[in-house]
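User: two proteins, same treatment. go.

Assistant:
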Amino acid sequence: MMRHFRSLVSLRVRSVPGMERAVVRVLPGDSRVTIALRLIGIRRNLQRDRTELLGRTLTRIAATASKKVRGKEPGGEVPGVRLWYQGREVPGDEPNCSAWREGSVLEVGQTRYLVERNPPSFLQLELPRSVLVGSPLSPRVQVEFGTIEASEFVWYRQAGDSTKDEARDGWEEVGRGRVFTPGKTELGKRLKLMATPGDGHRQGPAVQTELTGPVEDEPCHCLSDPRHLLTQSPAALPGFRTVSYNILADIYAQTELSRTALYPYCPDRALERGYRQNLLRREVTGYRADLLCLQEVERETFEGSLGSVLGATGLDGTFRVKEKQHEGLATFYRRDRFRLVSQHDVTLAETLREDPVQSDLRHRLAGFPAVWDSVMRRSTALQVLVLESTDNPARKLCLANTHLYFHPNGGNIRLIQMTVALTHLRHVACELYPGIPVVFCGDFNSMPNSGIYRFVTSGSISEDHEDWTSNGEEEQCNMALTHPFKLASACGTPDYTNYIGDFNGCLDYIFIDSLSLDVERIIPLPSHEEVIRHKALPSVSHPSDHLALVCDLKWK
């Protein structure tokens, strides 16, 4: 929910002695002009037509200033009201849209106001509901007439004993910048953020917001902690660290099915959104990824606590929702290592139905109407980004991210979906940008002995593979398929990447172009003893039922 901070805005004046502020908001295409100033001790927001003549607006201000604080009847002499710009009075026949210039001076009787036209301001400044020690914290921010980069952020810790009401007015500064990671000294205390919007030349009114509760203690052991010891430093150039991770959407973690059947071993608190988001922020930022592909991402997660932290720590990201599931894919890249050249996201069903490059598969599926209908019902998406290295712009790559159909009997549907995806990638990486390497991440819901894995890594699948009949004879669609890439699993085939109470298996992969890219280092998965410490995943020490794949890649 977007929060507007009229009541929280600090009314401090810029360093102009004897002058207050009049904030004028004029938006292109908006029929109204808003003039915000303090008159007779009350903060007023006057809305006037942008084409209205200045003289009429000043008359209205004069009438408002002459009213008593209580009641509507006139209260004394109407004050003189004038607008000055660069020492000259602005004529009354000038329309509002141009009359109110930055740096003008408004006189209302004996009071003078410095006019600020469209100053930087926050439309939104929001902190997560709960915060754990060791979990990076960054506000969800929306700035108008400014930039996040030019804005200032100062963090304060509640001084003294947070259990005592009298300590609430005592705050001490503990950090500056968009990201703050609470430590043990913040445990049990509230945090406050004072933020000042800016555009590089001006600063707008400061806004403050507080956590709704004190900082809570971290788990005694997070499953990602030993892995973070190996990712304390970024990948050395010209290499780049790549991460693929199904983070478990909150809409799935919060269902009654999840609590009672899928994850009955997981405490309710560990399935709560706030708790899991804290662990996710801590884990994902600790990998120091250059390329990050996430699955089961909700828009609130992308735009909120996780996305804001990733953005503040140097990653730019894009989001693609699966409309039917209300979650989707998020792909991030480190902005000082990669530049986005182009983006080619698709919904697999839609591109199969409409894209000319899919005509061959579309024609072959005409003989299998049941399979066609099943594929068309899925909202599976594919994100595709073409990136170039900031270190060497001649080096480009095609980064893809997907989450294939999940059903255990859906091997035939996944084969069709993978064929659509690889055909689309062929168009991007072989035709639009000939010869650039592919990095294809995702939750493919396919074990190493599946048709999908064989198809991707060998380049072909025979028409008699058993996965073509995975959902019975009614949906069989036997066909031989090929693709042009030489792809290998960068992290191999671990025993499992998904571990819940009644299932474990390897479902996630980072497929790379083996002709152009090498694996420099694989960050080992947690040991089996660590994974089952709390029986299975998710747990109090891990936010998802999947494990992140992490590896350092380099160009050959």
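Protein 2:
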Amino acid sequence: MEAVWQAPQQAAARERSFLREWVLTVDHKKIGIMYGVTGLFFFLVGGLFALLVRTQLLNPAGTLFSSQQFNEFFTMHATVMIFAVIIPVLTGAFGNYLVPLQIGARDMAFPRMNALSYWLYLASGIILLLSMVFGMPDAGWTAYPPYSLQSPGPGIDFWVTAVHLAGLSSILGSINFIVTIFKMRAPGMTFHRMPLFTWSMLVTAFMQLFGTPALAGAVTTLLLDRHFGTVFYNSSAGGDPMLYQHLFWFYSHPAVYIMILPAFGIISEVLPVFSRKPIFGYHAIAYSSVGIGFLGFFVWAHHMFVAGMSLQAGIPFMITSLIIAVPTSVKIFNWLATMWRGAVEYTVPMMFASLGFIGSFIIGGFSGLIVASVPLDMHLHDTYFIVAHIHYVLFGGAVMCIMAGLHFWFPKVTGRMFNNRLGYWSFWLYFIGTQVTFFPMHFMGLAGMPRRIASYPAEFQLWNVVATIGAYILGLGTILIMINLVWSAVYGPRVSSNPWGARTLEWTVSSPPPEHNFDDIPVVTENPYQPYGEPEPQPGFAPV
């Protein structure tokens, strides 16, 4: 009966128009691909903004554009990279494509709501780019009042609208992930048999669901203050600008973990495959994600140590900020233990995951411990040390993982293999570019160079020139990656359903997977991270 049903369905799929095949699709895989393609486009846009900012800083006088334009470009860079690239690519692209496949489901719980989430995200990005025509936001990606209240033009209004739509997309997506994972797992797929990427997406979904409304409240009240006469943040009329910071960071520090937990999940899938070993400490990695998700809501005020809050109020947040490093360290220990004495194969995904991610993220984590301390943060806050820290976490961390995941699942999505030589070249450009761009910023920050300035004293020029050279190396690496993936998607050699010898359920179906995912819903009988003793992995499921 299944085969009789499948044939006309496949024939109909070939005859669909582009409108029905993509624009009106509710297939989680196609929605995931649209998230990914859109996110990579915005990645190019956000990267271009970064190169403009770094080019401005080649010269201490900053002659490329005005200080106002500099404010606009670094605001757009950060906003695009956070709200239009990292969060939607990790949760929308990887999450949508992989979670149903990994748990043995045929689709997400609410397919139409899933499609709506994507179109809200796309609308958010378009509105953000439209601000370049009507007036760009200039208050940084945090949009702190009172400056954001007084910012002329519609730029902040575009920013608020874009953030609102992105937040609504995240809320709908998180509801979908939670219901899908709780209610649609295949028979035998217990929580302790779920792949670790799915674990990370479950925790991330809860964080988005609980945190995003705080951001919505912050930007809504900001808009009301700007245009409707309210005084939430107007201190001269009794308002409190600190209230905005509390609301904003109650979401935006958990957002750091929203941007890194799915990345951790990607690493937990890549490392055991290319180490040819089971993941070390499966339960520790899974429950450390839960610990990070819980503790992430108790650290927000460490961004506000110098904003006017009392030192005594900062101490509990300093303690929680230090404690949250423990579950992260547990993950790093387990990843290293997974590779220890394994038959490690340094493929392109493995290079991004091991040397690229772990080698860079440890630096960002260590600098995070430094700025979590109240006395050190009072010295380093609003310097380039913070810029170095956040970029090692988000670029050396999240973006390296995105690249690892793109190369790891590329054969599954396209049915073709990428060019290995271009892959290795792009990795080394990324790894070297990351260190050359962001490591010198530690030195600039320790020496007292403020961030978010369009010009600077001449003694900082050397390290700014070095950082700008590194940024162009990253730009070249990005171009190589895009060329490789686009060319390989059309002309790359065809691959089998499981070219890496991986063991999770997505590798048990064809590459690319059929529209219905599974001919028969699998029955799971074992953990996906079993010893790699067979030449071809024997998946732990059988058809109903």
